[in-house]
């Protein structure tokens, strides 16, 4: 079955995935004995060439584009400074928690100069719900001062300049570049790193090395959208502990298919988020 350009035959006909995983199904013998147990054993996949990996990675990105046609940064912001602040606050927190915190913060602090001259106790109290509020307050005050002193109060447009600012590493810089300035960047957060390793795109653990490895597979113009798609997929389908393999649109290209439930009705219960109905429809449910 094909829906909107996505092959969903893997949902009901899993032989292709079973072969990849080394699954063995003992069928009934000629005496009519009952079907014996299904055993899934993950084995090392056949050696994949670099060209084959590039093609598979880009195919998976195209499939994700169908699964998540309207991806976006899930942090609320109105300008580059607000996005920078929100991204700093998102460390060791959730986007939902940050979005509950930032309305009052952004109402009180509107410019880099406001952060530079912030009352520390007041700022800490406002951002306390996001966790690590003392360290984050240090970063925000330092950020404000650096922006005022070095960049006329404006958030810079380059990776090289952004990573020199307090509280900003490559991940935050790429979020800001991609979503505030339209500069392609790969955002390697927990979800992104977990999924690209699970998909066999890289074995690297270091975020900078992951970013480089993925950047060599996917066209630069796709980097920001790819980041959103992978993060969306990680939050909604490919969970850390129990991925919803049985309804995953990437199953036919995923070497880790089977680490989560493969029964579609069971897997369907694991899907989260506002796109659930759309994702299940792509899976034929």
Automatic annotation (TrEMBL):
<keyword id="KW-0411">Iron-sulfur</keyword>
<dbReference type="InterPro" id="IPR004036">
    <property type="entry name" value="Endonuclease-III-like_CS2"/>
</dbReference>
<keyword id="KW-0255">Endonuclease</keyword>
<dbReference type="GO" id="GO:0140078">
    <property type="term" value="F:class I DNA-(apurinic or apyrimidinic site) endonuclease activity"/>
</dbReference>
<keyword id="KW-0326">Glycosidase</keyword>
<dbReference type="InterPro" id="IPR003265">
    <property type="entry name" value="HhH-GPD_domain"/>
</dbReference>
<dbReference type="GO" id="GO:0051539">
    <property type="term" value="F:4 iron, 4 sulfur cluster binding"/>
</dbReference>
<dbReference type="Pfam" id="PF10576">
    <property type="entry name" value="EndIII_4Fe-2S"/>
</dbReference>
<keyword id="KW-0378">Hydrolase</keyword>
<keyword id="KW-0238">DNA-binding</keyword>
<keyword id="KW-0234">DNA repair</keyword>
<dbReference type="GO" id="GO:0046872">
    <property type="term" value="F:metal ion binding"/>
</dbReference>
<dbReference type="InterPro" id="IPR023170">
    <property type="entry name" value="HhH_base_excis_C"/>
</dbReference>
<dbReference type="GO" id="GO:0003677">
    <property type="term" value="F:DNA binding"/>
</dbReference>
<dbReference type="Pfam" id="PF00633">
    <property type="entry name" value="HHH"/>
</dbReference>
<dbReference type="InterPro" id="IPR005759">
    <property type="entry name" value="Nth"/>
</dbReference>
<feature type="binding site">
    <location>
        <position position="238"/>
    </location>
    <ligand>
        <name>[4Fe-4S] cluster</name>
    </ligand>
</feature>
<keyword id="KW-0540">Nuclease</keyword>
<feature type="binding site">
    <location>
        <position position="245"/>
    </location>
    <ligand>
        <name>[4Fe-4S] cluster</name>
    </ligand>
</feature>
<dbReference type="GO" id="GO:0006285">
    <property type="term" value="P:base-excision repair, AP site formation"/>
</dbReference>
<keyword id="KW-0479">Metal-binding</keyword>
<feature type="domain" description="HhH-GPD">
    <location>
        <begin position="89"/>
        <end position="236"/>
    </location>
</feature>
<dbReference type="GO" id="GO:0019104">
    <property type="term" value="F:DNA N-glycosylase activity"/>
</dbReference>
<comment type="similarity">
    <text>Belongs to the Nth/MutY family.</text>
</comment>
<comment type="function">
    <text>DNA repair enzyme that has both DNA N-glycosylase activity and AP-lyase activity. The DNA N-glycosylase activity releases various damaged pyrimidines from DNA by cleaving the N-glycosidic bond, leaving an AP (apurinic/apyrimidinic) site. The AP-lyase activity cleaves the phosphodiester bond 3' to the AP site by a beta-elimination, leaving a 3'-terminal unsaturated sugar and a product with a terminal 5'-phosphate.</text>
</comment>
<feature type="binding site">
    <location>
        <position position="248"/>
    </location>
    <ligand>
        <name>[4Fe-4S] cluster</name>
    </ligand>
</feature>
<keyword id="KW-0456">Lyase</keyword>
<dbReference type="InterPro" id="IPR000445">
    <property type="entry name" value="HhH_motif"/>
</dbReference>
<dbReference type="InterPro" id="IPR003651">
    <property type="entry name" value="Endonuclease3_FeS-loop_motif"/>
</dbReference>
<feature type="binding site">
    <location>
        <position position="254"/>
    </location>
    <ligand>
        <name>[4Fe-4S] cluster</name>
    </ligand>
</feature>
<dbReference type="InterPro" id="IPR011257">
    <property type="entry name" value="DNA_glycosylase"/>
</dbReference>
<keyword id="KW-0408">Iron</keyword>
<dbReference type="Pfam" id="PF00730">
    <property type="entry name" value="HhH-GPD"/>
</dbReference>
<keyword id="KW-0227">DNA damage</keyword>
<protein>
    <recommendedName>
        <fullName>Endonuclease III</fullName>
        <ecNumber>4.2.99.18</ecNumber>
    </recommendedName>
</protein>
<keyword id="KW-0004">4Fe-4S</keyword>
């Amino acid at each position: 079955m094909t829906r909107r350009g996505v092959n969903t035959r893997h949902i009901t006909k899993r032989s292709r995935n079973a072969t990849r995983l080394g699954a063995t199904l003992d069928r009934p013998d000629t005496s009519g004995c009952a079907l014996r147990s299904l055993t899934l054993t993950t084995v090392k996949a056949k050696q994949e060439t670099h060209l084959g990996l590039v093609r598979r990675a880009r195919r998976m990105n195209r499939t994700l584009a169908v699964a998540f046609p309207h991806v976006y940064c899930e942090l609320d912001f109105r300008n580059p400074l607000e996005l920078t602040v929100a991204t700093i606050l998102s460390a060791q927190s959730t986007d939902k928690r940050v979005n509950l915190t930032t309305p009052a913060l952004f109402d009180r602090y509107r410019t880099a100069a406001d952060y530079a001259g912030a009352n520390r106790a007041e700022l800490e109290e406002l951002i306390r719900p996001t966790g690590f509020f003392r360290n984050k307050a240090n970063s925000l005050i330092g950020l404000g001062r650096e922006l005022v002193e070095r960049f006329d109060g404006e958030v810079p447009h380059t990776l090289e300049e952004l990573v020199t600012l307090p509280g900003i590493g490559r991940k935050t810089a790429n979020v800001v570049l991609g979503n505030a300035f339209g500069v392609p960047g790969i955002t390697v957060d927990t979800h992104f790193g977990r999924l690209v390793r699970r998909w066999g795109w890289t074995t690297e653990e270091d975020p900078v090395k992951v970013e480089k490895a993925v950047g060599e597979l996917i066209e630069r113009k796709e980097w920001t959208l790819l980041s959103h798609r992978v993060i969306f997929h990680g939050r909604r389908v490919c969970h850390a502990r129990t991925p919803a393999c049985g309804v995953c649109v990437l199953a036919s290209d995923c070497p880790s298919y089977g680490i989560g439930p493969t029964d579609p009705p069971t897997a369907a219960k694991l899907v989260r988020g506002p796109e659930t109905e759309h994702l299940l429809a792509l899976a034929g449910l």
